[in-house]
Amino acid sequence: MLRPVSDLPDVEEFTTSHAAIDHLIERLPSMRADHLEPLLQGLKFGMKLVICRRGGGPFDLPPSDGALALLIASASCGPDQFDEASIGRALRAAAGVCVTSTTATEAALSVAGLALVSGQRSILIETTARFEADWLAAIKRLAPDARVLLSTSVEGRA
Question: How big is the CA angle at 73 (ends 68 and 75), to the nearest 5 degrees?
C-alpha cells in the first residue's frame, strides 16, 4: 500500500475535481512542495500520480492504462529503504526516470511531460546529493536499459 508524502493528502481523492487539484496546488508553498505543481497539473489531463515513501513495503503500480507518474520521495535515504523488487518492476516498466537532488520544478515538469506525451509511466526520484549515486547504481542494477535524466545540485556526487 502506498502512502502519501508528509502533509500531502492522498492524491487519489484529487483526481476527479479540477477545483480540488487547484486548491491543493495553492497549498503547496506552505507545505514546501511547490515543485510538485507540474505533477498535480498533470492530473487535470488524465495522468495518474502515485507517491511512494520509504518503509512502505512491497507495492504494485495501478494497471498501465495511460500516463502515470511515480514519485519516489527519498530525500533522507537511499534505495535500500524501499522494497527492491517493487522498485525494480517500476523502473523496468517506466518510459523514463528522472533522479533529482534538487527541488527543481523542471525535473517534475519533465516527468509529468514524459508521462503525458508518451501515455506511459515515468518516475521521479527525489533525493539528495548524498544518495544520488546510490540511486543511479540501483537503477543500473535493477533496470540496465532504463532511460535516465539526472538533475543534480552543484554538490552532486553522481
Answer: 150
Helix axes 129-142, 84-93, angle to 10 degrees: 70
pLDDT in tens, 62-120: 776 677 777 777 777 889 988 899 899 989 988 888 888 775 566 666 667 767 667 77
CA distance 151 to 97: 11
pTM: predicted TM-score of the whole model, two decimal places: 0.74
Name the DSSP class of 74.
Answer: -
* Cβ atoms of 36 and 69 closer than 8 Å: no
Grid cell, residue 58, equals 512491497
Burial 2-28 (b: 16+ CB within 10 A, else e): bbebeebeebeebeeeeeebeebbeeb
Share the mean pLDDT of the chain.
75
Q: Which three cell numbers stand for residue 127?
A: 533525493
Residue type for position 57: G
Amino acid at 123: I
Whether residue 47 contacts residue 67, with contact meaning beta carbons closer than 8 Å, is answered with yes
Phi, psi for 127 (deg, rounded to 5): -145, -165
